[in-house]
């Protein structure tokens, strides 16, 4: 079963929203997945557009699927777009290869899950994800 | 944009979990969707099995897709299994036709969204959904 | 190119809605497809549930796909559910095997398209489709 | 339930067709979606090619999915093609990222839905969508 507690996931989401409020970001959506790629918690702020869940989920899923934050996935997609197009199909349309998907590990390096944020620029989305992960006492990998 | 606020969705989830704790239910997963069928918030309690998100989502989505709580959808599925099988394909595998998906309306009867709960028996899942909806000052339709 | 004029399709939809109003039906959705299975016109009355387009389309598409009204498709589905389950997959989830999908032909028997109606009981949906087809000077086949 | 009335959707379609006739455009297809991305009305003029529904729908859906008119989506797709390719997969092939998909809001800024037009050049398609939205007393956003 998952090493990621619901309480941890909720802390991550609250902190990501606080970071967004503090830095004046647009409405955010935050998805927290366990190491198996399964959704533990999600929240979407008011006035979000309708595909925000899929995009936030897809960033977190993409990070887990390829074992790297989506900033690195983005670089890979630009260098080898045909590879990313195929991976997107392989994943059944669940990969979103732009920054904002960040892996999280515990102090010993063990993979705990991933966070995906969508709503503002990809860079700001990623900063909100990292803030959430750190507030939960975990280490952000790939943000 | 959605008439369903994130704050309302969070109240629903917290109350459904409180109902589960109070009545000794197994770990629950609760999905709250707006009237357009889009996810606003989801939480899965620790020790849930891995497909809980899809099941909770599918109950709420099924209620919205067919305009009735999934208790009525369940009856329809028993009477006309070939119709439900086709609807499941039409919906891309997003309909779960057992109790636990409940529509929610405001005082004037306006549809606000739906709640789907999964984790315990279908009857108990439904009771948790109804408790959440009522705690948010909304009317449960089809639970 | 299609033998089905937009003007004809609009007459069919208006008449189906008039039939619904006259006989006190719930809000209806009506899809009109040409003989190639492509959508010419669709309208959904206010307060329809969210999957009405897919259901109305799927009835019309099912009639065209199998060359018979969906009343006959429904019978086939009850007799051979495994066949219908496979056809649903073959069609990519676009077949809805319950009454309400009716073929339309001109006076010489030439296939012009199909109409799918959803919103009330399957029998009432079908009656609205037939009314629309006849008002357009065409022959309802399979309703 | 949807804030978009069928009557409003029909006004939009009629006006878009009138705009097309007035400016000598090719046959148009017009899809009107509510804020949840669900089809309210569609009409395709005679002599349209066979995929016009999917294209018109996809422009409107793309605008809603990403919260911006498809003119802006088009720009994003040119700048980050790997992101658009992934979003297309995430959306199950329902996004069409070229001009002609326009959001519509009421006077208070509330999102009411989106219009997608296809048939002539993307610029002319967009102008027809904007004409329809304005004739319905709504505000075109992103056209």
UniProtKB/TrEMBL annotation, chains A, B, C, D:
Domain of life: Bacteria
Pfam family, one: HbpS-like
InterPro entries reported in the protein's UniProt record: GlcG_carb_metab_protein, PduO/GlcC-like, PduO/GlcC-like_sf
SUPFAM superfamilies: GlcG-like
Gene3D superfamilies to which the protein is assigned, alphabetical: Haem-degrading domain (3.30.450.150)
Protein's name according to its UniProt entry: Heme-binding protein
